[in-house]
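Lecture notes, continued. The same structure-token format from the folding unit now serves as the input rather than the output. Read the line below as a description of shape only.
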């Protein structure tokens, strides 16, 4: 299954400072308004705080709308880490492009930090991980940070944001990807999440990150590389050999788009797929008792 979803690189629109002009000296003054004043502190660029935020960030969000709110109140996103670009990335005149190596490196940092907060691999959960960077104007003003936002999804298929009333680390046990009804139509598959205790024909079995140098698949041969790895992931999940899996079962390889693949989010999620066959319960360690593909 080729499903185009990926990370978003978000820019924040931050207000510029105001200048004063056209003011004449007042009568009885020397016109030197600052000769007895201490120097003003250098202006500080806005940097996001860790914590929950009322709404998911988008390209028009203002700094004031990035304010932290009580995580027990309704919110859409949580910043779990804030880092700083350095080296050539920080000295550039504009923020890193979404598909640049600098953005990819920052996203990799986001993955590491998000996994620490969640206590497990974020890819195994019904969440989205976003890399947030400053706007070009803010970047020129000295804002060279990047933020890592975790968002709960209402469902994996449509990737719609779901509001929460708790920190993302609380209730993680309710977020793992589980079982699905996979429906094929016109060569496309749609995935509807269902309880594993109900009848279903698909189940999330794990994920992987392709080896360095593996390009985004644009041909059948390219997709075969991902499917072969998902075969291994699914076989291990079921507790059978690769040859047993190849003979009787199939899987879905869920990858991001080419643009986001280049940006560091080249993660691939794997799903067991039984076609028209159905089962109840999880396929984990059930070996060949799992109904064969039909």
């Amino acid at each position: 299954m080729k499903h185009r979803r990926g990370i978003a690189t978000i820019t924040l629109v931050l207000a510029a400072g105001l200048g004063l002009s056209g003011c004449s000296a007042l009568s009885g003054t020397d016109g030197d308004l600052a000769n007895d004043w201490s120097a003003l502190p250098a202006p500080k660029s806005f940097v996001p705080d860790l914590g929950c935020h009322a709404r998911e960030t988008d390209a028009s969000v203002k700094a004031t709308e990035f304010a932290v709110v009580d995580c027990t109140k309704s919110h859409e996103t949580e910043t779990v880490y804030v880092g700083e670009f350095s080296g050539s990335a920080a000295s550039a005149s504009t923020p890193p492009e979404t598909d640049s190596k600098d953005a990819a490196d920052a996203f990799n940092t986001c993955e590491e930090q998000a996994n620490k907060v969640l206590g497990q691999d974020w890819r195994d959960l019904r969440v989205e991980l976003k890399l947030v960077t400053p706007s070009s104007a803010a970047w020129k003003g000295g804002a060279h940070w990047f933020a890592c936002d975790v968002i709960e999804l209402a469902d994996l298929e449509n990737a719609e944001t779901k509001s929460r009333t708790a920190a993302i680390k609380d209730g993680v046990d309710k977020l793992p990807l589980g079982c699905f009804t996979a429906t094929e139509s016109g060569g496309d598959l749609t995935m509807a999440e269902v309880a594993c205790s109900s009848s279903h024909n698909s189940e999330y079995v794990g994920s992987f990150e392709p080896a360095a140098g593996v390009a985004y698949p644009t041909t059948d041969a390219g997709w075969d590389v991902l499917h072969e790895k998902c075969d291994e992931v699914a076989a291990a999940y079921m507790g059978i050999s690769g040859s047993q899996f190849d003979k009787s079962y199939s899987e879905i390889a869920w990858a991001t788009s080419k643009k986001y693949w280049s940006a560091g989010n080249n993660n691939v999620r794997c799903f067991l797929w039984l076609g028209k066959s159905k089962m109840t319960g999880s396929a984990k360690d059930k070996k060949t008792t799992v109904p064969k593909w039909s």
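Point for the exam: Confidence is low (pLDDT under 50) at residues 1-31.
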